[in-house]
Design goal:
The chain is an alpha+beta fold and 297 residues long.
Amino acid sequence: AVVILLWRRRRDSEERARALEALVVVLRRSQEELAASEEKLRHMQKMDAIGRLASGIAHDFNNLLTVIGGQAQLLQATLPEPSRERRRAEEIIEASDRAAQLTQQLLTFSRQQVPRPRRLDLNAVVQSASLMLQRVLGDHIQLKTCLRPELGPVLADAGQLDQIILNLTINARDAMPQGGELVIETCEENLAPSFAGASPSAAPGPYIVLAVRDNGCGMDEATQARACEPFFTTKPLGKGTGLGLATVYGIVHQNGGFLAITSTPGEGTTVRIYLPRGEENDVKNGRHAVGQPTTNN
């Protein structure tokens, strides 16, 4: 009887020890998930704050540019042609126009521009863009496309899609100064809740995916963490504005999607854009992914 009693106590102790170990594992996993969620929340709050700041700067700067550009045009009209003074006025106007384009990129990042989404064939958009992309890339970079047949429609703004493709292409080109290969892919993915949870802005469901992959210099984890911040760039002074990925980030989130970046130093970078699938009911009901009215162009 004593032996049986001791055996039962030992068995109970072992069961309690196993239960305690399992509880520790669960608590540790919960702490890790909580820390990851807090980090994602801080990142979203940071990007939202930067977006509000960028919007305020863009609006104020745009007002100044309006005055500068208008006065330069009035000055240009009073000067004889050709003359050195008239050429200087033209240079002011050109600089003002370039600065205005930067403010538009800032407004896009801060989601202040209203998109005009409609159901689009992403494959057709990529094929149309690829006709001019090779000229942008140059002869030292090979452009390839891998487009999924019978791809479902995407609900997005056509002009913004072109801007996404162009910005990602230019970034990839700059990452391959010695040449390389750029691949543009399209596919469909139905995100499970577990995958969608990897991004704070992602929701489970069907998505149309645009992926741009290069085999350039790649990025380390610290650079990836800041890649979408406006004005952050690893390019030499005067070679980049730091608004390329920031603009893409703003457009994608404005259209109800999200982006994911995977990169390895020395091996290249892949940027995957997830956009909501364009269901017929979305257009009929006059709504799109982020609740803005749909306007047909």
